[in-house]
Amino acid sequence: WSEIQTLKPNLIGPFAAAGMDRNPVAKNAGKFMTLAGFLDYAKASNISGILIGIEHAAYLATRGLDVVDAVSNALIKSGYDKETKQQVFIQSEDPPVLSAFKKFPKFNRVFEIEFDIRDVSKPSVVEIKEFANAVKLRRSSAAQVDGFYLTGFNAVVERLRDADIQVHVGVLKNEFMSLAFDYWADPMVEIATDTWSVLADGLVTEFPSTAAAYFRSPCSDIKRNMSYTIKPGEPGALVDMAAYGALPPAPP
Question: What local confidence, expressed as pLDDT, does residue 244 receive?
Answer without folding.
Answer: 73
